Amino acid sequence: MFGLSQACLCRARPLRPAKAVEPxxxxxxxxSSRPLTVNIRTAAFLGExxxxxxxxxxxxxxxxxxxxxxxxxxxxxxxxxVEKGEVRxxxxxxxxxxxGNNAIYLAGRGFNVTGFDFSAKAISIAKQKASEEKADVTxxxxxxxxxxxxxxxxxxxxxxGLFHNLSxxxxxxxxxxxxxxxxxxGQFLMLCVADQAGEYPVYPNRYPPTTSQxxxxxxxxxxxxxxxxxxxxxxxxxxxxxYSAWLTSMTFTK
Length: 254
Ligand SMILES: C[S@@+](CC[C@H](N)C(=O)[O-])C[C@H]1O[C@@H](n2cnc3c(N)ncnc32)[C@H](O)[C@@H]1O
Known about the structure:
Blueprint: H1 4-11, E1 25-29, E2 35-39, H2 40-47, H3 51-64, H4 76-83, E3 91-95, H5 101-108, E4 112-117, H6 120-132, E5 137-141, E6 154-160, H7 168-178, E7 182-193, H8 213-219, E8 224-234, E9 243-252
Parallel strand pairs: 3-4, 3-6, 4-5, 6-7
Antiparallel strand pairs: 1-2, 7-9, 8-9
């Protein structure tokens, strides 16, 4: 079932100090039918380089647990930005929309919203929630690195928690592809875990890596004008801590 991925998982050793290992472990059924237990953070670490692992990692979170970022409401920094009139719209693309909280919130505020994620389970939960809340959102499954395949342009693209999951080369690929879905002077609004404490502490773990303002400015140095960057929060559900995050708004200049 997992092919190469299975082989890697079988050989996986804890790659982090024992104290940092998360309690959540997942039972996977390998091709041999031998049950295989994998620490979810080990899978995430491997996934830094292997998109199939990464997809598996996220999908398993949605299938067997409640991911920390699934807070049953939109992220507070998104709500604040909408209330300040900082989200331009009216068309919005939510990249890495997860189980749909931000997209559904935006639809409720009158935006015309499309959301996608590479986790099929996340998208099925998002569709279910949207139907229960009678929210008109188009959800579909896609890898963000193929965002350029989307045959439509949006006034605003939001990314709450996806960019920081990508490693260097993939970040560059993603940023290049983003330009295919933004209208000219379109907005990109991004939240990623910050390297600096504000009201909340710095995310202490290695994955996803924290991001500096310099990183953000470097990745978006061509074709983008950064309007503002401010410290906010990556809000988590009750059992997890909240961490400092950069909220960045930029404009596509081409
Ligand atoms: C930290 S979660 C945030 C989810 C959502 N934006 C929210 O705020 O609730 C990151 C999301 O990005 C998705 N993701 C990560 N890499 C992706 C990729 N390459 N393509 C599409 N989705 C991706 C994950 O499946 C996950 O749902």
